[in-house]
Amino acid sequence: MEQITIYGRTSCGFCVRAKSLCEAKGLSYKWVDVMAEGLSKADIADRIGRPVHTVPQILVGDQYIGGCDEFFAFVREREAATVG
Question: For position 66, which CATH number holds?
Answer without folding.
Answer: 3.40.30.10
